[in-house]
Amino acid sequence: MKPWEKNIRKVVPYVPGEQPNKKDMVKLNTNENPYPPAPGVEKVLKDMDSDTLRLYPDPTIKLLVDELAHFYHLNSDQVFVGVGSDDVLAVAFLTFFNSPSPVLFPDITYSFYPVWCDLYRIPYEVQALDENFCIVKEDYNKPNGGIVIANPNAPTALYADLSVIEDIIAHNKDVIVILDEAYIDFGGASALPLIEKYDNLLVVQTFSKSRSMAGMRIGYAMGNPELIKAMNDVKYSINSYTMNRTAILAGAEAVRDVTYFNDNIQRIIKTRTWTEEALTDLGFSFPKSSANFLFATHNKIPAKVIFQALRERDIYVRYFNAPRIDNYLRITIGTEEDMRKLVEFLKGFIENYK
Amino acid sequence: MKPWEKNIRKVVPYVPGEQPNKKDMVKLNTNENPYPPAPGVEKVLKDMDSDTLRLYPDPTIKLLVDELAHFYHLNSDQVFVGVGSDDVLAVAFLTFFNSPSPVLFPDITYSFYPVWCDLYRIPYEVQALDENFCIVKEDYNKPNGGIVIANPNAPTALYADLSVIEDIIAHNKDVIVILDEAYIDFGGASALPLIEKYDNLLVVQTFSKSRSMAGMRIGYAMGNPELIKAMNDVKYSINSYTMNRTAILAGAEAVRDVTYFNDNIQRIIKTRTWTEEALTDLGFSFPKSSANFLFATHNKIPAKVIFQALRERDIYVRYFNAPRIDNYLRITIGTEEDMRKLVEFLKGFIENYK
């Protein structure tokens, strides 16, 4: 070992999900939106004065923050914007989780939570979901250094009723509770109104799913101004200028087009319903989805076998080789055509499976 | 104090430099390039298929990494890309500076170094520059947890000869030495060739200055593959997808246009020479600049007075109210017209100053 190696931060290298890029593939593996962003986004990029790129962007990201505040009926000092919700969550972990007591989150949830804890040396303790993948709210009534919950959860797609969420927040007023609502627009009610009642609640959302902009990297957090200021203080201490000019302009434009946003979501929900029925007919079952994906298991064929078979046909879904969920596939809701291709292939495959 | 406040990370809120946005202002305060990015950048944005924004970008940023590797005659595994050199440096600090011994850097240098140390709880110890703002290389021959040096330095614009830099690296083979070369393209020789000789050297550069793309947020680091892998491991543990699709495409296009890059730099160097002569005639002096700015002090009028007078005329330069440098102005080299306006105003102001 070279002497300088001993001071390198040890992390378990997180392996990002596969991003295949084949012609005619059906890409249902990373919960992207199958439809393009709002039409105004293309126009904004085409009309952009590229000369302005020589100048630093606005460090306060005012244009986009104001547009989000307007959309959600908040004040601008209640909104924080970052480079995707991963950036927002990472900043929130670094800002709020500095207790010697462990941070709590479910055993089955977004796989980044333990990664951020390990990176920033935050102690944590996972709480088991019940046998139906539901949160056991009583498990969060114990001393802790903070709580993070994804609702709807990933990769289960299950939405926990707001009463369950509020019960957890109400029992944990001494710590920050982060609610990761990446998928909230596809079903369920947001906990956003609760930020007026609980000053320790931070609600995090993203442009990557319901706004079709995973490629632009925009996420945001909403909470009381004191929380938002604390996050901005940390952000300004890492990198004052995180959002580039294209992301700020395109993001603001996307928020303005409310009709497109709602239509896009309804279209995906409709395709989700169709897919649920078709897959049920083929012997699949899944927790009720409130997201843009299904978490499906088959009554005969192991998930891993189906995953491999799909992959060979350039149909990409996500498989997690992890305890309790290793017989499930996470299948993003794509276009109607994507889902027809998936169902047709699975029909043939299941019929011929011995 | 609310109970949850005690776990919020305490940082001295870094205040980003002012970003005025007035018509007809002369903006010489944040070392931006006065000329637009390479013409191909505009074309890339106009031609971009906005439908692709629904998909996550390539987490490995291969297109841009490969283009930089090609430009610098490196292998791709020797290049790390991030959201501006601030992001790259912050990741480097978090990755490499994990020793109980203090990190060393000059007392007068880029103001973000102590901010990152405070944020990540890295001990540090500043080493005084000599009375001419030069590095005293012997000060770095002592036990430490790593070294970071800006060359050319900011805000002095002074370039330290490569022999000085190499001497420091050679005396510190047990720790990582980070060389922040944000301004290297405007003068002086890069330490890049030394990465083949010293596996503990990381060279950091940016698109914000010589490539006219501060608004796009692109920075990069070059070093041995083990260092680059360690940084990518940490990056993937924070946010796998940091660079959005527009930044990757536009960045790669900018690197390809070598002629534009060189012409842009030569134009700024020419204007710098003109400005140096004009300001000298007015009673200013400055360390020899190898950057796209001057660090100027006047033989009669206090810097703060000049700063305020310029500001009232919508000519923005940077003033640091800090020990040893509080009688200096950092003046970015703008267009020839910008500098003529500056000089004309100063001429009148100085003539009438009592």
UniProtKB/TrEMBL annotation, chains A, B:
It comes from the Bacteria. It catalyses: L-histidinol phosphate + 2-oxoglutarate = 3-(imidazol-4-yl)-2-oxopropyl phosphate + L-glutamate. One of its GO terms (biological process) is L-histidine biosynthetic process. Its EC number is 2.6.1.9. Residues 23-345 form the Aminotransferase class I/classII large domain. InterPro entries: Aminotrans_II_pyridoxalP_BS (IPR001917), Aminotransferase_I/II_large (IPR004839), HisP_aminotrans (IPR005861), HistidinolP_aminotransfase (IPR050106), PyrdxlP-dep_Trfase (IPR015424), PyrdxlP-dep_Trfase_major (IPR015421), PyrdxlP-dep_Trfase_small (IPR015422). GO terms for molecular function: histidinol-phosphate transaminase activity; pyridoxal phosphate binding. The keyword Membrane does not apply. SUPFAM superfamilies: PLP-dependent transferases. Transmembrane segments: none annotated. Gene3D superfamilies: Aspartate Aminotransferase, domain 1 (3.90.1150.10), Type I PLP-dependent aspartate aminotransferase-like (Major domain) (3.40.640.10). Belongs to the class-II pyridoxal-phosphate-dependent aminotransferase family. Histidinol-phosphate aminotransferase subfamily. HAMAP family: HisC_aminotrans_2. Homodimer. This is Histidinol-phosphate aminotransferase. It comes from Variimorphobacter saccharofermentans. The lineage of its organism: Bacteria, Bacillati, Bacillota, Clostridia, Lachnospirales. The gene is hisC.
